Amino acid sequence: MRVAICPGSFDPVTYGHLDVIRRATKIFDQVYVTILNNPAKRTLFTVEERLEFLRRATADLGNITCEYFDGLLVDYARQKNAVAMVRGLRAVSDFEAEFKMASMNRNLNPDVETVFMMTSGEYAFLSSSIVREVASYGGDVSNWVPSYVAEALKVKLRERRQEERDRQS
Ligand code: PNS
After folding, report:
1. Is residue 154 helix, strand or coil?
2. Degrees (nearest 5) of the Cα angle 8, 19, 112?
3. Is 17 a catalytic residue?
4. Alpha carbon of residue 111 to chain centroid
5. Ligand 1 centre and the CA of 9: distance in Å?
6. Cβ pair 54, 13 in contact under 8 A
7. Which of 6, 63, 67, 102 has the greatest number of CB atoms lying within 10 Å of its CB?
8. Angle in degrees, CA 112, 116, 117, rounded to 5
């Protein structure tokens, strides 16, 4: 049985992530879609919220488990006996960070490969951060995330604005 991990922050999951996840399920027998901590990012949604979005968005796929792991990706991969960690590659701009991460992960655990998947053309520019930014100015993100994520973004960003106002008053 060939196991793969699709790791990420998923803050929130986008159709770009889902495209890569779906394609991974066709190649591997079992796919773990795993939320890990990225110390460089302060997230908008809680782990529980992000997991709920992922579970809902992948409910139609049989060979998927969505989880959270607080630790190193390579340790998680070892626990799951994974042969691959799948990352979507959008543009040249992704390359340097991904190269660093894949190289470090290979040093830490040479038994698991990082596999890059080119994102489909229509999602080449898409990222969670751009979705959050557009949503924060009231823009329509319904083409890029499931409807319940778009709705949750509105609610969360409204809460954030209120918190900000309360802090300033
Ligand atoms: O969606 P992201 O933020 O690009 O995903 C990055 C993530 C969460 C996969 C990465 O930060 C990660 O693997 N975090 C877990 C801790 C870890 O293993 N760090 C070493 C990476 S070289």
Report:
1. helix
2. 50
3. yes
4. 23
5. 8
6. yes
7. 6
8. 135
pLDDT in tens, the chain (169 residues): 999 999 999 999 999 999 999 999 999 999 999 999 999 999 999 999 999 999 999 999 989 999 999 999 999 999 999 999 999 999 888 899 999 999 999 999 999 999 999 999 999 999 999 999 999 999 999 999 999 999 999 999 989 888 889 988 8
Q: Whose CA is nearest to atom 4 of ligand 1?
A: 8
Report the nearest-CA residue for atom 9 of ligand 1: 8
Distance 89 CA to ligand 1 centre (A): 14
Rounded to an integer, what is the distance from CA 105 to the centroid of its chain?
18
SS (H, E, C) 42-53: CCCCCHHHHHHH
Q: Which tokens is 62 given? A: 């049989």
Q: What is the Cα–Cα distance from 10 to 51, expressed in whole angstroms?
A: 9
> Within 6 Å (CB) of ligand 1, which residues are found?
7-9, 36-38, 41, 72-73, 101, 104-105
Largest CA-CA distance found in the chain, in angstroms, rounded? 58
Q: Ligand 1 pocket test: pick from 5, 6, 9 the residue with the most ligand atoms within 8 Å of its Cβ.
A: 9
Tokens of 109: 């655990």
**Residue 41 is a catalytic residue:** yes
Check 23, 90, 132, 156 and give the catalytic one. 90
**Contact of 119 with 88, CB cutoff 8 Å:** yes
